[in-house]
Amino acid sequence: MSESSDTTPEPAAPDATGDASAPDELAFDVGALPGGALAALEAVLMVVDEPVPAVRLATALALPTERVEGLLAQLAAEYRGEHGGRPRGFELRRAGAGWRIYSATAYGDVVGRFVVDGQTQRLTQAALETLAVVAYRQPVSRGQVSAVRGVNVDGVMRTLTTRGLVAEVGQDAASGAVLYGTTGYFLERIGLSSLDELPPLAPYLPDIEQLEGVDTHDGREGSR
């Protein structure tokens, strides 16, 4: 009797990440990057500014959600100094339905002193110019502020938000970009009771609607 001629292909071998279920449309292999999937996940976590669900991280890395959840637990344990590692000044925590890197609780006093010291320093010229654009053209997106000033203002906007001078006030219905405006603390700091008391600087600023080719998106999705 002749041997079976069954030619059914064998299951594909796992890729370098140890996961055979990565999407076929994957344009890159995170396992081939320096440090592999663990380092790739860490790189993504370093740029998020609010808790991100594991499923969204899995989409970014093109890995199964279960795999990413395991990597998150591994990183969290590593940052806590488990298994003989050095405790870090930051930690990876689950917050609500997502994950984010935070300063370690043990160093809260040190971080607090640093933040307070930064808030007592004078604003730079770039920060003052950015604050003026927000004050006179609010509500406005970071992309629109960048268009008026001609430079990227992401870092300056974070500074103004941290100091409580600027805050998110809504979302643009057409583009989905986060919109910013000044706060009550801003008025308090400049000694005004309302925005109507601002000096007449607005006529010297271009109308947002007249800026051609402005990308009103600010790099974040939805209402983040």
Automatic annotation (TrEMBL):
<protein>
    <submittedName>
        <fullName>Chromosome segregation and condensation protein, ScpB</fullName>
    </submittedName>
</protein>
<dbReference type="InterPro" id="IPR036388">
    <property type="entry name" value="WH-like_DNA-bd_sf"/>
</dbReference>
<keyword id="KW-0132">Cell division</keyword>
<dbReference type="Pfam" id="PF04079">
    <property type="entry name" value="SMC_ScpB"/>
</dbReference>
<dbReference type="InterPro" id="IPR036390">
    <property type="entry name" value="WH_DNA-bd_sf"/>
</dbReference>
<dbReference type="GO" id="GO:0051301">
    <property type="term" value="P:cell division"/>
</dbReference>
<keyword id="KW-0159">Chromosome partition</keyword>
<dbReference type="GO" id="GO:0051304">
    <property type="term" value="P:chromosome separation"/>
</dbReference>
<feature type="region of interest" description="Disordered">
    <location>
        <begin position="1"/>
        <end position="23"/>
    </location>
</feature>
<dbReference type="InterPro" id="IPR005234">
    <property type="entry name" value="ScpB_csome_segregation"/>
</dbReference>
<keyword id="KW-0131">Cell cycle</keyword>
<keyword id="KW-0963">Cytoplasm</keyword>
